[in-house]
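Support request from a user on the community tier.

User writes: "When I paste my structure tokens into the form, the page sometimes reloads and wipes my input. The last time it worked, I copied everything first. Here is what I submitted, just in case something in the input itself triggers the reload:"
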């Protein structure tokens, strides 16, 4: 399942595009503010884009079978602070 971008919160920093190891986000349309999800099926729910989004504009939906091994990094990070 692909990440969900809250376009109202997105500030267009493109951190998610840079950090995604699977290139889920592709090149942007000229002058587009928010990233475009080009390869939604390639997301492996690593959470890296969610952690690196400074505007908290990203969320991912983890498929039920993947929940067995999923670590919610942002929540874990908050709990450690
Ligand atoms: S969760 Fe990981 S694989 Fe999926 S879009 Fe974000 S950085 Fe890419
Ligand atoms: S990291 Fe967050 S704020 Fe930056 S472009 Fe991606 S969704 Fe938008």
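"...and here is what came back when it finally went through:"
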């Amino acid at each position: 399942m692909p990440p969900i971008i809250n376009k109202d919160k997105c500030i267009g920093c493109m951190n998610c595009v840079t950090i995604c190891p699977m290139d889920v986000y592709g090149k942007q349309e000229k002058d587009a503010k928010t990233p475009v999800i080009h390869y939604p099926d390639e997301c492996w729910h690593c959470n890296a884009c969610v952690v690196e989004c400074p505007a908290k504009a990203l969320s991912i939906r983890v498929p039920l079978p993947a929940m067995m091994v999923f670590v919610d990094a942002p929540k874990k990070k908050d709990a450690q602070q």
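Agent notes: The reload is a front-end session timeout and is unrelated to the input. Residues 73-80 form the longest helix (8 residues). The beta strands are 4-5, 58-59. Escalated to web team.
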